[in-house]
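Here comes just one.
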Amino acid sequence: RHADIVMKAVDEAGEHFILHLELRNDNDPEMALRMMHYYTDIALAYPDELIRQYVIYIGKAALSMSHKIAHSEWHYAYQLIDMHTLDCEQFMHQDNPDALVLAILCDFKGKHSKEIVEGIIRRLIELTGNHPERLRNYLKMLETLSTNRNLSEIFEEVESKMLSEIEIEKLPSYRIGEARGEARGEARGEARGEAR
């Protein structure tokens, strides 16, 4: 129907399964029922496959959703992961910027928010290397996620300080993109001039 992610996957032991992931930004009182609905749809489409379901909660409010339905004659449950309870260090040491941005949602384990935000941005700069556009996209994601932790002001302060230090404009890929933009602008100007 409208599941966030459904894919075929293989775990570390080599077992094949269908992975179903849902991301939630709010506490949905009907989530367990919705997940059971997804389960039956997936099971009907892939009757011989093992199905593993996870809801990843990234919301601002404390988690209050249920992960199961306990009926008198049957029982249904799925895995519910609260990002606020995961150690941010697990994500900080990943060599994958997609995983790294999720660190902003996790438990800082008593560390100061500014220190964590600086660490995440520093790692993003390292991982995106010489690609300012990729860096910009990940910073946008990070900015959006930082609102779930009320870190918008800290994020803005740290981002502007760190980006002024690395001077994106001096990176070769930025200059190449700038030159291409100028060339396109000149070509358009010439075409307009000829048309006139």
User: Anything to note?
Assistant: DSSP finds seven helices and six strands in the chain. The two ends are 53 Å apart (CA to CA). The helical segments are 31-45, 88-92, 97-100, 113-128, 132-146, 152-166, 172-195.
